[in-house]
Amino acid sequence: MSFNSIIGNNNVKNILKKSLNNNTILHSYMFIGQSGIGKQMIAKEFAKMILCENFQENECNNCKSCIEFNSRNNPDFSYIEPDGKIIKIEQIRQMQTKIIEKPVNSKKKIYIINDADLMTKEAQNCLLKTLEEPPEYIVIILIVSNENKVLTTIKSRCMKIYFEKIEDDEIKKFLMENCSIESISENILRMCDGSIGKCISIKDRLNDYFEIEKIFSNIDKSIIKVLNYSEILYKNKDNINEYLDYINVILYGYAKQNLNNNAKYINSIKIVEKTKQRLLGNANYDMSIDYLLFNIWEEFNEKNSRG
Predict the structure, then answer these.
(1) Which letter, b or e, does each residue of 189-219 get, where b requires 16 or more Cβ atoms within 10 Å of its Cβ?
(2) CA nearest neighbour of 253 among 202, 197, 185
(3) Which of 56, 165, 275, 282 has the highest count of CB atoms within 10 angstroms of its CB?
């Protein structure tokens, strides 16, 4: 993989290339942006280019460093990610014991900490010691989705680089070239929200999303007809939060089309959010879906429901 093969965020790639060309690589970076927009891929490619023995604009892949990097055996590169749902202080301490060891093959050692916003406060304070006085050969890249969870003292010691959402046209092109999907609805694009990662997770369940759309294209029909299309919700407990988000995307799209009469759509979105709260509170699953469907149906069939 090279920068050129990564979709979007050309401004970020140009900034990083410039630092490589000018030999102005910093000790610490923070890559900020929603998940699935290429932060990890660009961070890894940047690390590979820093470590490359023959760096040029075009990727090398032939030197010892690149060969070891591609096979995940480069001793000068480390990748840290959450242990469960958090990054623990023990993981940062283990990193610090390795940091004092000088590079084996390259002039630099690279540490990428993925989901760095999931570091515990203790882990962040531990990392701060390294960021304050890093060895001259160290480069640390923090990848975060929510910078508000990161201590101000850490943010102040990193060069913050903000990643943008991927354009819809680029997502369409990706789906066509990589997934043989030639057309995709505006609702699906809204659900992807500029994230290739979301796009990839959705593509294998497109039929599920089409079934959910059928529910709401029939929401003003009889409740029996609505329930006939709703099996997808009752049988997909593991994906329900994602599907509820998609229902909100559909409702929001309808609301925008009916600005002068959108109360029922706004109220329905509130019902979806209430359903999420019920599920978080461990309410009965089937009864929560019943609550969702019957209450939204009533919003669209007020006269019938009162009758």
Answers:
(1) bbbbbbbbbbbeebbeeeebbebbbbbbebb
(2) 185
(3) 275
Model confidence at 172, in pLDDT bands (50, 70, 90)?
confident
Residues 6+ apart with CB under 8 A from 230: 215, 289, 293
Residue 3 has a pLDDT of 82
Q: Are 240 and 275 in contact (CB under 8 A)?
A: no
Torsion of CA 51, 54, 55, 60, to 10 degrees: -90
Residue carrying the six token digits 């294209």: 217
Q: Is a pLDDT exceeding 90 seen at residue 261?
A: no
Q: Which residues contact 158 (CB under 8 A, 6 or more apart)?
A: 28, 29, 30, 131, 142
CATH architecture of 3-162: 3-Layer(aba) Sandwich (3.40)
pTM given for the model? 0.82
For residue 197, what is the enclosing H or E element? helix 196-203
Mean pLDDT of 144-172: 94
d(CA 295, CA 289): 10
Could you tell me which residues come within 8 angstroms of residue 232 by beta carbon, excluding any fewer than 6 positions away?
Answer: 208, 211, 212, 215, 243
Query: Which amino acid is it at 87?
Result: I
User: Which two tokens mark 142?
Assistant: 């923090």
> CA-to-CA distance for 175 and 286, rounded, in angstroms?
34
Q: Which residues contact 217 (CB under 8 A, 6 or more apart)?
A: none
Query: What span, in angstroms and rounded, lies between the C-alpha atoms of 90 and 126?
Result: 9
pLDDT in tens, 64-79: 999 999 999 999 999 9
